[in-house]
Amino acid sequence: MRRALLAAALVLAGCGAPAPATPTAGGCGPATAVVESTDVVPVGADPGSALPATVTSADGRAVTVRDASRILPVNLYGSIAEIVFSLGLGDRVVGRDTSTTFAAAADLPLVTPAGHDLSGEAVLKLNPTVVLADDSIGPPEVFNQLRRSGIAVVLIDDEQTLAAVPRHIRAIAAALGVPAAGEALVARVDGEIAEARRAAPEGGPPPRIAFLYVRGTAGVYLMGGKGAGSDEMIAAIGGVDTGTEIGLEKFRPMTSEGLINAAPDVLLVMSEGLASVGGVDGLLKLPGVAQTPAGRQRRVVDMDDGMLLNFGARTGRAIQALAKAVYESCR
Q: What family does this chain come from, according to its entry (predicted)?
């Protein structure tokens, strides 16, 4: 069940009160930190759309949006829907993808019944006037079907980085005819990210953090590196991404040797992934995990799936929560 409030609640791992343990080099004791989800906060009321608006889609097409009364935002990360709601346009959204999990969108019809593939039939049933998407979702045939039906389809570039967040907000706001609301949202998100970056304490060794993408039910065990997205979140809180440090690019299979060489003193995982391997105890059974400083200290930061790699309008708050979770237990 998705949680409604943002928190960095620190709870001691295991049952009862464990014996004191010697902190790692980064000063991290034996605790698990949980970073929970939060709902979106609109930058203001629906400002109304100045349409028609002609924009250049990420695929190079010139698309004219004449009606933004029924919006369908979809992508692999849930970030497009998050931005639309944050612009104050949530009441116009008619459906959602699997990754759009925040509370305000929870009751919307699902248009990705098979994982992250769009159903053309499900989309057309909702009668959207404009579809916002990116290359992380498909198949392309569905977009062509929607275009033939007269629906404006605007693709946003799918770069998932902190630097891309303002660009995505402006592109979405332009397509929906609310550029002023877009600028207000950019200013808010930029301010939250800047504030989050200042949360990292000065002095002392930075926490060494490894991001593990695990899906026990599918047998997927990966470690993040440069370009995975997790590296940007870790750097934003003043940490060292150990996957990048040992030369990993994006996501690579998790190996005992790689983990031991990375020597993280904090493990960062997604909530659903951690649950899929049986929690912290199950995570420690994976090859190499228990042999890391983080594994020996049971130092795991468990972050809601919809927050960590989203790179949407809640990114600043996600960085703030991650910083709090890491630094309150690594002093």
A: Belongs to the bacterial solute-binding protein 8 family.
